[in-house]
Amino acid sequence: MRDYLIEKLYESTKKPYQKYFKKNEPWNIDKNKLFDFPKDSLGYGLGNFLYQNQFDIQEKLEDHDIIHVLTNTGISVYEEIGMQYYLLGNGKRSLYLFMVILSGTIFYPKQIKYFLHQYKRGREALPFYYLDFSKMLFMPVQTIQQTFKI
Questions:
Q1: Number of domains in the chain
Q2: Which pTM value belongs to this model?
Q3: Residue 22 belongs to what domain range?
Q4: HEC sequence for the chain
């Protein structure tokens, strides 16, 4: 039930967040074209992530799925919350991030150890949340992970 509530909350806030808060341009890349990138690349990794989870590219939110790829974070509700803890540890600050962390902590108090572990992982990595990943799609995932200690 709580997963359902959190997912509905996300779905109801996603469109306004995309429209009013995300100032970046959409990548305008076809999901299937991601498989044209080299197999070890970030672009291919993104395509694989989207395909495996039966997702489409979300306009202006492409970075979110890239973070999943780079941090090897799953897509369950508590893992999504954990990823926001990771990003907080990595230095990201946004109203949306704080809303997810607050609501997630309230709904998943038993996952606090996992959340704090993710926060610590984010602190240990070099800041990378702000990068323009659209320009890095040809780079090997492993190179990015090693460079930023992800």
A1: 1
A2: 0.88
A3: 2-147
A4: CHHHHHHHHHHHHHHHHHHHHCCCCCCCCCHHHHHHCCCCEHHHHHHHHHHHCCCCCCCCCHHHHHHHHHHCCCCCHHHHHHHHHHHHHHCCCCHHHHHHHHHHHHHCHHHHHHHHHHHHHHHHCCCCCCCCHHHCCCCEHHHHHHHCCC
